[in-house]
What we know:
The structure holds two protein chains of two kinds.
Chain A: E1 4-6, E2 10-13, E3 19-25, E4 31-38, E5 42-51, E6 54-57, E7 64-70, E8 73-78, E9 87-94, E10 106-107, E11 111-115
Parallel strand pairs in A: 2-11
Antiparallel strand pairs in A: 1-3, 3-8, 4-5, 4-9, 5-6, 7-8, 9-10, 9-11
Chain B: E1 4-7, E2 10-14, E3 19-25, E4 31-37, E5 43-50, E6 55-58, E7 61-66, E8 71-76, E9 85-93, E10 97-100, E11 104-109
Parallel strand pairs in B: 2-11
Antiparallel strand pairs in B: 1-3, 3-8, 4-5, 4-9, 6-7, 7-8, 9-10, 9-11
Amino acid sequence: DVKVTQSSRYLVKRTGEKVFLECVQDMDHENMFWYRQDPGLGLRLIYFSYDVKMKEKGDIPEGYSVSREKKERFSLILESASTNQTSMYLCASSGTGISSYNSPLHFGNGTRLTVT
Amino acid sequence: SQQGEEDPQALSIQEGENATMNCSYKTSINNLQWYRQNSGRGLVHLILIRSNEREKHSGRLRVTLDTSKKSSSLLITASRAADTASYFCAAPRGYQKVTFGIGTKLQVIP
Lengths: 116, 110
């Protein structure tokens, strides 16, 4: 079974802090994703990566950056945390090979981030 | 912008009844995926239907896809209390840019 592990289940940070959310997958997947989930807004895509050192902006990249130095690890960085970034953050991975676009996503259990 | 939009946003049924959820999307797709999320957890993949398929079954789940109407439906037959969860459809926009809708919150009453 694919395992996607997010480093923290709950995180509390102060406004202005730099925050790192880590995600690791163990299935050699090419694609990795970061979403945030808010009540009434569903899941919104922040960034995704289709290869090491490659990244693409999702629908709400402002205030975030990402890093993918190794295939198995995809980090989400909040450069200067703000209260409106309080949310549930979900990491996912998918796909191997040339048909990776037809592969389902495997999700971690999420990190609930509170910025005070 | 979100690719999938689920309807209804909430659904409450009795155990044993069937539950139907619908999804509409905006652009052409290679596939459409359905996921389930239990409260406070990550999403779990249920079923993927490719653009050249019209119907797919998996256990008590039946998914249909109508590419001419840009819509899909998920049917859960003989529902159980354990099916209580939120259900999302998702579709890739471009190369693997997978976006989700707001979801349908299903409550199955024992």
